[in-house]
Structure formats: C-alpha cells, structure tokens
C-alpha cells in the first residue's frame, strides 16, 4: 500500500481529498495502484469529517512515513509550502502542486531537487485549473518549435469581466461572488492586479522556452483601471476586453512575456471565453495552433488536475525527465515590451481628429452609445509601443483609456 499526503485543507485541499475518496476504487483499479489517503496536514482542526482521523499538524509525520510516496501540496503561498515541498522531495517523495506562486518563484530549483532525488515535481493544476496544458506542452507538442502562447489564465477576472459586461454587475459585487464560489485567491488583489495570471505565464514561458522566467521580469497590468466605457467601445469595435497572459519569441531571439487587458476581436476564440473558464492558444511550427479550454478555477476542477498528477506520480516512481527547465541568472533574454510593435485602442477627451490624424495617419474611429461630444476613441496603426506613447504625450487632451489589441 502507498499513501497520499495532502498538505493544506482549504478549497483545493478539501476538493482533492473529496474527489480522491469518491473515486479511489476507480483510480486504483484503472491505474493498477493501491493508493490510500495517509495524511492531511493543516494547522486547523476539522472534526466530524469521514477522514478526520487523517489530520496532522506535524509535517514530520509525513516525512518520516516511508509509505508516503506522493504528496499533494495545495496550501498556496511560498512559505512554508516551499520548505515542506523541498523536504518531501529530499526524502524521494514526489510532489504535485496547484501552487502557481511556488512554481513561478521556485520551479527550476524544485524540478532539480526532484531530479536529484529521483522523484517528481508536477504542477498541472498550477495553470488553467482543470485544463490539461502542462503535459500537452511538454509531451504531446514536444516535437515542435513552439513560438508563442496567449490565453485567459485567471478565472476570477474573466468571471468579473463577464458579469460586468453581460449583467452590468459592479466590479465589487462580481468579485464578492467569485470569492464565494472559491475562485479568487486569499488576497484577491493577486487576481485583479494580474499577479496570478503573471505567475501562470511565467510557468508556461519557462516550460515552452526552457529557461526560468521570474514574475518580477514580466510586465503586468490587471483589470482595475478598466472602465465600462472601454468595455462598450470593445463591443462596438466587434470584440471584447479580456485579461490576456501571453508570451512570444521576438525577432531578435528573445522572448516577450506579458499580462495585460487586450482588445480581442470576435474572430479570435479567446473573445468568446466567459465566466470562470480559461482558454489557452499555443502556436508552433508543426501543429500551427491549438486551443485548450475548460474551468480555470474552483475546488473540484483544480482537484481534478492535482489528482491527475498524483496518479502519474504513483504510477511512475522515478523522474519523468521531460518536464524540466534551466534556472536563469539574469533577464537578458526578456525583450522590452516598449520596443514591441502593437496596435492600441485609445480613448481621449479634448483632442481633435486633425491632430489624431497628423500623429497616427488613418486611425480607425469607434463610437459608443452615450459618447460625450468631447470624447474620441480610435485604434492606432501598428507601431512600436514607445512611439505610440511619444505621440500620445504630444497630443492635446487627456488619455482616458489605452488598451493593446491582441495580435496572435
Ligand atoms: N484565483 C485563480 C483564478 C485560481 O481565479 O484563476 C486558479 O488558479
């Protein structure tokens, strides 16, 4: 008999235990396994559960039990999760995590620790919730030169944007609902400021391009500055505003990871992804493009991905070598986003069309219901971002909105 230990009994932790116990017989039968729930680590007490006898407050109970071969880390945050994960890997126990902050900040080191101790560090649940994305990238698409990826990577902000657009719900009410449904981070600022999507694009970038991309190196904007006016202009333009995490290889061989709201045209499938769902497009030479879609957050969808890894680890006790990337010591391989060519939606008050045309040539104007007489909105031609900024700085009037158009 092998034992599974679950570190953390919050939303994802309780979901992981519940789904495992519900489907344990099927999981063991299908996988040819004999896996039992061994421990649940949490500092809180949970009396009255069918598995209350499994709780411990001491990580040493797990570390010292040789029957524990697989550990699910679902605590979130870097400390103490990092220390616990490193200790488990050090004892040759494979670890499966949903903790994107941990993978984005310590992934290269933990992958190496797993390899050094001939066990696995897996993180399918860290990106895209229930969506299989990590395995497809490093296994199914491994024969290709992957050049870019772009997606809706945060369920909470997509849920909020959908509620604001379709039900005219206030930002605050939509966020409260996302928290109630267990989608949001403990501190929802991490969702709405883009940090959560940033951690996920760091993970995808590291996996695709083979070098650790740290969150501090990524230009990141959240949705807090978005207005209902911007949303209305996006609709009238023929698309939607979405928070997009993206990475692409640039012409000089660097990579450009970024998180920001984008105008997404209706021809792009990402514009139609609503509520808590995530969608991720991946681009490469052999397959052209593929899209992954599913529930990006929530108790059981995330538990499903954690347990997929648990089963893989229980089946393959030694290192699955394909899932590796190098650590990086500096960010010289990250391109400057201001040098990138982009087209932008601009909303401005108090400027005139002659001036806009002198600066931008033939701008594409968009209108909205209730548009004030002194407000103009337009889409710029494709220019370097730094040049757009320079032109805007020289323009009279106030820029009220500025959102990049997604071009993938
Ligand atoms: N807060 C995250 C989200 C949870 O909303 O996407 C899943 O990673």
Explain the overall architecture:
The protein is an alpha/beta fold and 408 residues long. It folds into three domains: 2-128 and 300-315, 3-Layer(aba) Sandwich (Rossmann fold); 135-293, 2-Layer Sandwich (Dihydrodipicolinate Reductase, domain 2); 337-405, Alpha-Beta Plaits (2-Layer Sandwich), CATH 3.30.70. Helices cover 36% and strands 25% of the residues. It is built from 13 helices and 18 strands. It has helices at residues 11-31, 59-63, 81-90, 100-116, 134-140, 155-167, 171-180, 189-192, 195-209, 228-237, 299-315, 353-360, 385-394, and strands at residues 2-7, 35-41, 55-56, 68-73, 94-97, 121-122, 146-152, 219-220, 239-249, 255-265, 277-284, 288-295, 341-342, 344-349, 364-366, 375-379, 383-384, 398-405. The strands form three sheets. Strands 7, 8, 9, 10, 11, 12, 14, 15, 16 and 18 form a ten-stranded mixed beta sheet that branches. The protein has a six-stranded parallel beta sheet with strand order 3-2-1-4-5-6, sandwiched between helices. Strand 9 and strand 10 (255-265) form a beta hairpin. Helix 1 (11-31) crosses helix 11 (299-315), helix 3 packs parallel to helix 4 (100-116) and helix 6 crosses helix 7. The longest helix has 21 residues, at 11-31. It is elongated. It starts with a strand and ends with a strand. The mean pLDDT is 96. The protein binds L-homoserine. L-homoserine (HSE) binds next to helix 6.
